[in-house]
Amino acid sequence: MKTITARTLELSGTSYEIGQALGRMAASNPRMKKFYTAGYENFGENEVQEAEKMFNEWCPGLNEELAGFAGELAVPIKSVVYYAMTYLRPSCSHLALLPSKTTGGHPLIARNYEFNDELEDFQLIRTSVKGRYTHMGTSVLSFGREDGFNEHGLAVTMSSCGFPVGADHCMRRPALKGLQYWAVIRSILENCRDTREALLFLKGMPIAYNINLILLDRSGNGALVETLDGSMAVRLLNETSPVPYTHATNHAVIRELASREPEAMVHSLKRYEYIKNVADHSETLTVNQLKDMLLSPYPDGLCCHCYKDFFGTTKSMIIDPADGIIDLCWGGRAENGWHAYRISEPLPTREHDVSITCEPTAPTMFRFDPNPFA
Question: What residues contact residue 102 under an 8 Å CB cut-off, 6+ apart?
Fold first, then answer.
């Protein structure tokens, strides 16, 4: 058993002011300051200028936020690790349900996020940047968002599509100069009101990460967006869809992209089939059923505790974009409690301890099998 500190955080003001607030928070936490300002090998002034140009076009306000952060800590902008890691191995499961598929008649998203506990922020942040839409979601490196929803009822979640892409040497190299998923998600939440706007916004965006992105808005329109080495494919979710849900784990399922990735890891295939079997055999699903799916242990559920192998459940959530509520449970353990937060209410800046259990990984989980959608 391991104890970890999770926090909620309210950020508001101009982009620069929000960056300053994050800088003050990092200054009070030596471990955070060291990690956030460690710089990155082979990322110098030229790369910073290229990143700033891309951020100005696709992530308005981000450069000002990072400048406020660097200024507060009195460090050069190129040493802020978010630049190098965003300018470009999570394993996750997520499921979007149309209102006709839920007992309460609301569109819902359920998602688990698997990663390494030492690299997870364990932060839920509500952010109100002047001139942008207020949104709430969990963070990566404080500036990025791994999921969330906004004041207009647009929810976004993600999972890796195939082997994770990133700047680290052990990850798949990006096929183009572009953005990491956490910058993409935050930009969608701050600039788009619904699924239609989000799909238009994504057109032409340089996305370096291979991602399964699920969009769902309060009116019950959604989409699965897959990217793979610079290509994008979209499957809409609405009243005319063959089934009233869409889901994803860590392999491509839209055929035009899946044909390029003929294999997928066993754990991804099993989690995908588990979600499909539950959804297909249930006329409707309740919030409690979704929570049970998220916290039940793999392979007869979606929860894993293999943190050393970057396959431990750090957070589980149910998002109701119509009611503007997120239910969040840290660490894949019901004992940590489910906590509900409303987008309409400021988040208290608060810390609390949560516990995780660490388990070894079965080697067969990372075996590759044929991708049935290829």
Answer: 108, 284, 285, 286
Nearest to 224, CA basis, from 275, 289, 168: 275
Quote the CA–CA distance of 252 and 4 in Å, as a whole number: 33
What is the number of other CB atoms lying within 10 angstroms of the CB of residue 352? 13
Residue 236 burial by Cβ neighbours in a 10 Å radius (0-12, 13-18, 19+) = middle
Which segments of 74-157 does DSSP mark as H helices, in order?
Answer: 81-86
* Strands 2-13 and 123-129, sheet pairing: parallel
- Asked whether the whole model's pTM tops 0.85, one would answer yes
Cα→Cα distances 254→61, 225, 291, Å:
33, 9, 27
Decide which of 311 and 171 is more confident: 311
Query: Is 232 within 8 Å of 238 (Cβ atoms)?
Result: no
Q: Which tokens is 251 given?
A: 């392999």
Q: 103-131 pLDDT, tens per residue?
A: 999 999 999 999 999 989 999 999 999 99
